[in-house]
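Technical note accompanying the year-one report. For the benefit of new consortium partners, we illustrate the data format agreed upon in the data management plan: each record pairs a sequence with a structure-token string. No post-processing was applied to the example shown here.
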Amino acid sequence: MKRRWWVFVAVSAAFILVYALVQWSVSGDHGPRPWDGPAADRDFDQISSDTLRVLVVEDPMVWERGPSGERGLAWEWIQRFAHKHELVVKALPMQHADSMLAALWEGRGDAIAAPLHLDRAERRHFHRMEPFTLCDPMLVRLRPEAAQDASASVIGPRMDSAFIAGASPFAHHRYDGWRDDAPRRATQHGAGTEEDLLIDVLLGHAPAAIVSRQLAVHDAARFPALQFEGPVGTAVPWGLVVRRDAEQLRAALAAWQGDRKEREALDKLRRGRTGAIPVAGPMRARRIKRLDPDSLSPFDADFRAHAQGRLFDWRLLAAMAWKESRFDSTVTSHMGASGIMQMMPRTAARFGIDTASAMGDHVGAAARYLARLDTIWLRAIPDRHERLRFVLASYNAGPGHIIDAQRLAARLGLDDTRWEGNVERAILLLAKPRFFMLPEMKNGYCKGNQVFHYVRGVLAVQEQLGGRKADRPR
């Protein structure tokens, strides 16, 4: 009987110990934290006479600084609160969730705008306001056809592992809502924000990542080398985080969020940021359908005539014309480019043509411009076939943007003498303020996804034309 009693005591003690360990793990309360001490004595009355300091991460959904000022879903939302109460508001960029919570507790910030998932221990000290949106976890990786090698792409329906940014609502020690089709291992990455991690995937530094749907909606079209899948877990609410003892601030925020006009304004803010993820389209542009084996366009003779004596084949001019205008001589772009070769007015004037010139003259001007661009890149890119990609990119976006992309590629550790998988990835990043506003980027913003598709598309059509019946040896 006595032995049975000791067995019962031992089993009970083991059960209590296991239960305590599980609760400790779930709560995330793994030792002393900065907010275990006294909180800062700061509330809405002090904020009103001072500054509303908002802790943010540099992310297009939270806060970022661009040429036209500060922007971001969370930032624009909280700016409305500041305007309503006539507050001075200031963004304080930070990198990691723990550092933001410590800064909030110590009074160095008044609210957190980043999408944090608070664990049980943190919820004892911090309060998340009513969510203004939900974050779905999406899996992102390089598209197989964009990967430089097999190790950079995972073939198959399931990923074994993926990284999560430190400042993410899905950080592995805070979130447990994964679905069966989620990666088996989700490891926290050194990258501070989801955008940092997304860029690491684009550059081949990380095989896959988990990011919020909002970021996927924002960047899917900008980064056609990436594919987004999911959601791979349950949604996490995203709301402003404040200290629990800041009761005046909590009450002011709650009243403001409950206002009908503010709810309507919020719907407008998030409408374009939380919808369907854009489809990036094929990596190579559409080929010419119903291709006539004997005649491609009314301008075939012009393509052949102006390619004579050049380093490039007439099919290149034909592929460019199809890509630029679908052989429509009347089309004019919203930027003012005209003719079948879509040359910009300033460039066209340098080569002696305008909208009144014959289309044959437009083809000739484009051929001379290609030859000049080839000369510009001759020393930097000695290989003729590789150089063609830089020439086509320069035709589409101007050589200044391509030189910027080459500089950025070198800065990021990419091969600045190779286009595919290297400089073409860098030019995608020139749509991001954090890159195109760097001092060494002399030409500013560039819609890099258009350049990405243009180069690949022209080469695909040129390859198709090379297989036409009329051009095969007899």
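Partners are asked to follow this layout when depositing records. The first strand starts at residue 52 and ends at 56.
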